[in-house]
Amino acid sequence: MRQKENKVIVTFHTTAEAIAMEKACLNGKISGRLIPVPRQISSGCGLAYCAAAELEEMVLTYMEEHGLHYEAVGVYLI
User: Fold this and answer.
1) Is residue 70 a contact partner of residue 22, using CB atoms and an 8 Å limit?
2) DSSP state of 78
3) Which of 78, 6, 10 is nearest to 47 (CA)?
4) How many CA atoms lie within 13 A of 54 on its CB side?
């Protein structure tokens, strides 16, 4: 069984916002990926961006600098 670890999870209102986030982070060389929203979280579109917890500030700053819209951001044990 996979060991659970803290991850920063970004949720979105729409699928288009989630895909824009993934594309921008790939271009910006920020490691992470789109995942289905974990059960303990609810989200409008069902997709979330997941990255290592230590990248939380970098992800938040990057989203702000690039005008990326999101629903919520948090660190969760998944």
Assistant:
1) no
2) -
3) 10
4) 0
